[in-house]
Amino acid sequence: MSRALGPFAAVLGRDLLLAWRGRADVLVTLAFFVVVVCLFPFGVGAEPNQLRAIAPGVLWVAALLSTLLSLHRLFAQDHADGTLEQLLLTPEPTVLWVVAKISAHWIATGLPLVVVAPGLALLFDVEQGALGVLVLSLALGTPILALLGAVGAALTLGLRGGGMLLALLVLPLFVPVLIFGAGAVDAYLSGVGAQAHLLLLGGGLLATLALAPLACAAALRIAVE
Amino acid sequence: MMKDMQKPERSKSIFRFAAPQMFYPLAGKLAPWFAGIAAVLAAAGMWLGFFVAPTDAVQGEVYRVIYIHVAAAWMSMFVYLVMAFWSFVGLVMNTRLSFIMSQALAPTGAMFCFVALWTGALWGKPTWGAYWVWDARLTSQLLLLFLYLGFMALTRAIEDPRRADKAGAIIALVGAVNVPIIYFSVKWWNTLHQGASVSLNKAPSMATTMLTGMLVMALAAWAYTIAVTLWRVRSLILERERHTDWVAAELNALEGKI
Amino acid sequence: MQWESWSAFWDMGGFAPFVWGSYGVTLLLVVGELILVVHRRRDTVRRLLRLRRASAAGAGGRRAFEEIVE
User: Fold this and answer.
1) Which residues, 6 or more positions from B21, have their beta carbon under 8 angstroms from its beta carbon?
2) For the residues of B147-182, what is the DSSP string, one character each?
3) The CATH number of B32-199+206-236 is which of 1.20.120, 3.30.230, 3.40.50, 1.20.1070?
4) What's the half-sphere exposure (Cβ side, CA atoms, 13 Å) at A81?
5) Which of A155, A175, A176 comes nearest B171 by C-beta?
6) Residue B60's beta-bridge partner residues?
7) What is the rounded CA–CA span in Å between residue A88 and residue A218?
8) Residue-wise over C23-40: b if at least 16 C-beta within 10 A, else e?
């Protein structure tokens, strides 16, 4: 167990340190999230009932776009300076450090979104009781986005126009997460209860955690080969 | 590997056609037959659909869109499955022809996907009063079109064919795993949001001639897909194998004729 | 036979734009795809022939070049 945790912790620690040193990038992702959310009232009007109705969807779509925006950074730096090849040459299982990298990426870019989301929800006058559900749905859902997105990021590594291609590849795959994530808050607000949505998100997270790193590792090997 | 491909194999096994060199002439022989079958079936299907099948009691004549709509929708889903199948075979057995197959199928699948959406919209306007409703089937079909476009964009963006093959195969498989998830999530979302405002499930009992017409059109789409894919495979094979002797010989034969 | 006249057939019970719009666009797409496939084959063969001529002219010396041009 400790033998497997060693490289995992090493890669996780390294990537978190890198993210901390380049925290301006991380803050840009967060600022993007906030700005996109704040744009919606200008577009649809400031009618409180309408804002309340669209709030979960707006927050979720914004979270999804922010995730997408930061995805290309997941492997690009390591690909450019050769670290990725070195990592692939190590005897450690690729899946292990791939999960470590994705975890570090989520902690740096996904977790801040989860933290600021309740504050933004208040701008839309969302009922306070729903904030917990919103946070929980984002905490379960954004890691799925990071895991699925990592597959796309690995496939488009080093390609011209990779950013747009990445969006085209992963956005359709994000749709179920969006449905259940925004749906959880809606279900809570309508009195149905969010348990079913949250359980499905949790199950989705476990399934993605089991499968996506395998696809991601294979994609990385192909990209570097 | 390359050396083995150069000399014609004498094996009688069906797997000898997995060699691009063997498959190329076979595809050339089969494609016109499938194209002919497709033309005959499409003509027969449309004759059944327009002249034999009765007017629908509820929808009137507009229901006659069904003959292409259903065939295209079936075909678009089936082609994606076949694409994923060939991708899987390619990744497991490392056969180049499998990847070529999946890449040759994609544009036709995307075309049928678009046809299904287009005809669905034109059929929807007079029957539901709107070109588009966010119904589970329509929405999944739209996302399927995005999956096709993503696959095609990815395989075309990568210049190294070996990387393009494998990257495309991975995204095809990831998409295939996601298609049922997308369908059920959208269906669930749809029932929560829209209730029973639009019910596509109540299929009125269909006249036998209508059903026959639909099936004949579906078979026509099937034959058409095979023919077009085989033709596309031939071009892809020539391009991939351009450094081999047999392509040189084939080019000699084609010189001046094309 | 379902139709009393050809004009009734083309009118499709008043749904002509929808029915013929569907069939027309489908036909257009199918024909377009067939044309693209034929073009692709021709372009591929021509390009490969050109490539071969160019490489023969570059590396293979005069004899090979003339052989191909012939």
Assistant:
1) B5, B8, B241, B244, B246
2) HHHHHHHHHHH--SHHHHHHHHHHHHHHHHHHHHHH
3) 1.20.120
4) 5
5) A155
6) B56
7) 11
8) bebbeebbeebeeebeeb
Residues A163-187 pLDDT 10s: 889 999 999 999 999 999 988 998 8
ipTM of the complex in this document = 0.87
Q: Nearest Cα to B141, choosing from B127, B172, B120?
A: B120
Helix axes A73-81, A94-105, angle to 10 degrees: 120
B154 to A165: CB separation less than 8 angstroms, yes or no: yes
Question: Does the structure show a pLDDT above 50 at B210?
Answer: yes
| Cross-chain residue pair A225–B163, CB shorter than 8 Å | yes
| Full-model pTM | 0.88
* Cβ–Cβ < 8 Å for B78, C3: no
Q: Which two tokens stand for residue B258?
A: 């094309």
Judged by CB atoms closer than 8 Å, whether chains meet at B157 and A160 is answered as yes
pLDDT at residue B198 is higher than 50: no
Could you state, in order of their start, the residue ranges of all structural domains in chain B? 32-199+206-236
Helices (H) and strands (E) in chain B, counts: 8, 0
Closest of A115, A112, A106, A105 to residue A135, by C-alpha: A115
Give the separation between CA A15 and CA A74, rounded to whole angstroms: 10
Q: Residues of A at the B interface (Cβ-Cβ below 8 Å)? A: 148, 151-152, 155-156, 159-162, 165, 168-169, 171-173, 175-176, 179-180, 183, 186-187, 211, 215, 218-219, 222-223, 225
**What are the backbone dihedrals phi and psi of residue A88, each rounded to the nearest 5 degrees, phi first?**
-65, -25
With the C-alpha atoms ordered C30, C35, C38, C40, is the resulting torsion angle positive or negative?
negative
